[in-house]
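Suppose you are handed a protein chain with no further information: no name, no annotation, nothing but its sequence. What can you learn? This example shows the usual starting point.
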Amino acid sequence: MERERLFLLIPLATGVAFLCFGVYGLRLASALRRTGVTAEARVVRYDTRRDDDGATYHHPVVAWTTRDGRECEHSSRLGRGTAPRGLGVGSAVTVRYDEEDPRRFAIQGWDSTTVDTVFTVAGAVLTAGTLAGFLLLITL
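A reasonable first move is to predict its three-dimensional structure. Written in structure tokens, the prediction is:
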């Protein structure tokens, strides 16, 4: 009986991690929609990152000037396997950023809440399913 309980910690930890990642992204997007400031920016380059499995992700780095005159240049938190044709280096884009912390920003048309929503739903299902299994084991 003890082994089954320990085994349930794996999907529970995974579910909680997915849930936290997804909720964080959705809250950030919501805060930027409510209180974010819009600015015109330019794509200055792409940061290319490789994960442990060898997959390559391209994160656009955009530069803009805040309303108070600060120069900002930051990489998007979301990367894609290929850079879209309309978003090449030098392209003009619109960003929505947090005025107090411009590192918190989203590129309109690039950053979406789809990934965050998928992580939130998967995390909720894993967490709820694991807790249901754990409760079932306790009652047996």
